[in-house]
Write a structure and sequence with these properties.
The chain has one helix at residues 4-21, and strands spanning 30-34, 43-44, 53-58, 62-69, 74-81, 83-90, 101-109, 112-121, 129-141, 144-152, 159-168, 197-203, 206-212, 219-228, 231-243, 246-253, 259-266, 270-274, 283-288, 294-299, 307-314. The protein is mainly beta. Strands 1, 2, 3, 4, 5, 6, 7, 8, 9, 10 and 11 form an eleven-stranded mixed β-sheet that branches. The longest helix has 18 residues, at 4-21. The radius of gyration is 27 Å and the shape is elongated.
Length: 315
């Protein structure tokens, strides 16, 4: 049976551990802008290590990072545990391209928050390649933060510790969008390999062609054209690409800006993509029939009837 003194010692140890765990973290939270100032402990990096601007939001055991992408206009927000556990983040989506990804860990080391990239995945691949990139965030003053890493500062130089000084911004960066993008059903580009090929069909006096490349790098690309009386009357750029564990179909009729349709169902011979906010079509379905015909059906809201295009494989 523990003595009274032993119980008191255990309670003191627990209280000490709780005090350590409850220590306030450095004031890294906020929005930060890169400067050309020289860090106090390492050489200045030739370019901003963690981008021109970023934001940090801290929880008790988590951190949310916001980085600006797409010409520094679009916020890219990721969330991580600060216990050193791994998390997988996917790059922001780009039309007609598969996504690359990173496996990262985040943990406190003293007064520094260390963000490490321990693996990466190429577009179209789920097998990670080991990586070893480390970013250490620490305060250099009330409104100055240094991000340190190791990089080659020239083609002939070896790995060198460098850093970028960031200053606190008065205006906060935009956060995560209130409405999250639609999520599709799980799938990879290999599951729609049957769409690849040169296809041709007719509709009235017109001939319609779709020429789909084989999948590579998590994506497949197509060109469609409508020919009537030896003249091209319409054309369209099309693609299917992996996004967030699913597939997205993008259509660019007559080189217009892309309209995206998320995969909502798939089996061995059919794939259905939907965009309920689009005027028409709201749904695009590809199906391979038993006789080898490729059917592409576009549909909207009743009473508008679906339209099916039938294609035969060409050499």
């Amino acid at each position: 049976m523990p003595t009274r003194g032993g119980i008191r010692g255990v309670l003191l140890l627990c209280a000490a551990a709780h005090a350590v765990a409850a220590q306030p973290r450095p004031g890294l939270a906020g929005s930060w802008q890169a400067t050309r100032e020289a860090p106090s402990t390492v050489a200045a990096a030739p370019s901003a290590i963690f981008g021109d601007r970023f934001a940090i939001a801290l929880g008790e055991q988590s951190v949310e990072l916001t980085r600006m992408v797409r010409d520094h206009q679009q916020p890219f927000v990721t969330s991580h545990r600060t216990d050193g556990s791994e998390s997988r983040i996917m790059s922001p989506s780009r039309t007609c391209l598969g996504q690359t990804g990173q496996i990262v860990t985040t943990a406190w080391e003293g007064n520094s928050l260390v963000y490490s990239v321990v693996g990466s995945t190429a577009a179209g691949s789920s097998a990670p390649t080991p990586a070893k990139v480390r970013y250490a965030f620490r305060l250099q003053g009330p409104d100055a933060l240094v991000v340190e890493s190791v990089m080659r500062t020239s083609a002939s130089a070896g790995p060198t510790p460098v850093g970028t000084v960031y200053r606190r911004m008065q205006q906060a960066l935009p956060g995560r969008a209130v409405e999250e993008p639609a999520r599709g059903v799980p799938a990879t580009i290999s599951q729609v390999a049957w769409i690849a090929g040169n296809w041709s069909g007719t509709r009235g006096p017109a001939t319609i062609e779709e020429r789909w490349t084989a999948g590579a790098g998590g994506a497949m690309i197509a060109m469609s054209r409508t020919i009537e009386k030896d003249a091209i009357t319409e054309f369209e750029f099309l693609c299917i690409a992996e996004r967030d564990g699913s597939l997205v179909y993008s259509a660019m009729p007559n080189a217009a800006a892309p309209t995206h349709f998320m995969l909502t169902s798939i089996d061995a011979r059919t794939a259905t993509f939907e965009n309920t906010s689009n005027d028409f079509p709201k749904k695009i379905q590809y199906a391979l029939t038993p006789d080898g015909t490729l059917e592409a059906t576009i549909s909207g809201t009743p009473p508008r009837r679906p339209i099916t295009f039938s294609f035969k494989r060409q050499p």
